[in-house]
Amino acid sequence: MAENHSLELLIQALRRLPGVGVKSAQRMAFHLLQHDREGASQLARALDHATASVRHCNLCHTFTEDDICPTCRDPRRDRSQLCVVETPADQAAMERTGAYKGLFFVLMGKLSPLDDVGPRDIGLQKLFDRINAPAAPDDTPVREVILATNFTAEGETTAHVIAQALKGRSDVQVTRLARGVPVGSELEYVDLGTIAHALVDRR
Amino acid sequence: MAENHSLELLIQALRRLPGVGVKSAQRMAFHLLQHDREGASQLARALDHATASVRHCNLCHTFTEDDICPTCRDPRRDRSQLCVVETPADQAAMERTGAYKGLFFVLMGKLSPLDDVGPRDIGLQKLFDRINAPAAPDDTPVREVILATNFTAEGETTAHVIAQALKGRSDVQVTRLARGVPVGSELEYVDLGTIAHALVDRR
């Protein structure tokens, strides 16, 4: 095995994927070489193509192949609402609900002092610039910022910092996704913090 | 997201890896594009290189970049012993023990009727050819075949089929790795089948 240089390099390269250890990388490499060489070539092409063409939208910071992503370009969307999410996956989850018709801003991360991730690393300034200046001179200004970061310690911190920075601005309303009991769940099995929040935010 | 073609293609390609579902593929793609584009390029190069250069050893069927793998070429190995394993990972495990100095034959699979994997799919005929004909005219013939397939239902079946096919050959001895209690384990926590085998095979 040790002498098999290109197999070793492949296993090492696969280990750089998040959540993949030595054993998984080995299994993936063996699987590709034994059963799916076409899949291996396809993955190589997809990686090359994506690294060459995928960049960040100038407005919302999400992954796109254009200067401005299709969502930000879409004239049917409500340009006065800006939903702040942590990742493109979170944005996709919001989109799948079909309940939101405004624009997005994707932080591409969250504040995490323990991991040494500060406001600069997740481009908070870019968010404030986006809120302060409309995309085009005739563009609708942002009137509501909906904080949809995750309900984890880091996500809450990120939401708090953004809310603090926008405090005192009468032209921009800052809201947060409601905390409460998940749809379809039984109270008996919901954690106490969630029930307490649902009680406070009752309507 | 749907409009982001090369990102979608990358996620689809990553899903072909064993054990990777939609969410993992998404997380891998986002990680590579956001934090490790160099890793993505490295993986693409490693995949291309491996698919182009890795093939099977003519003698033992394992992955190698040469006609004959370094293990089969090694003059210090005992050429009269042939250890039959399912995968290169199993071969690597045997090698790490340092207790085996013979040659290998890697099946690259196991008999699995439920998954429609028969004797032809795992190249059993190649194994029998290897046992019948020495690699070179002056090569030592195989005198012992050590069955080191896994101790699972499929591995046991595979071992049984090979043993049956070599039955009645007085020139080749067929052995199987010993079943027994793992080193360092306490009897109380070992499963009953293992203890029963250890009792029968006591020495």
Residues in helices of chain A, as a percent range: 40-55%
Largest interface, chains and sizes: A-B, 56 and 56 residues
Mean pLDDT of chain A: 88
Detail the poorly predicted runs of chain A. Answer: none
Oligomeric composition of the shown chains: homodimer
Overall shape of chain A: it is globular
Order of helices and strands of chain A: HHHEEHEHEHEHEH
What descriptive keywords fit this protein?
two-stranded antiparallel sheet; alpha/beta; 203 residues; 12% strand; homodimer
Give a quick rundown of the structure.
Two copies of one chain form a homodimer. Chain A is of the alpha/beta class and 203 residues long.
Describe the protein:
- 2 copies of one chain form a homodimer.
- Chain A is an alpha/beta fold.
- The first copy, chain A, has helices at 5-15, 22-35, 37-53, 70-73, 88-97, 124-132, 153-165, 192-200, and strands spanning 55-56, 63-64, 78-85, 102-106, 144-147, 173-176.
- In chain A, the strands form 2 sheets. Chain A has a 4-stranded parallel beta sheet with strand order 4-3-5-6.
- In chain A, helix 5 links the parallel strand 3 (78-85) and strand 4 (102-106).
- The model of chain A has no long low-confidence stretch (mean pLDDT 88).
- At the A-B interface, helix 1, helix 2, helix 3, strand 2 and helix 5 of A face helix 1, helix 2, helix 3, strand 2 and helix 5 of B.
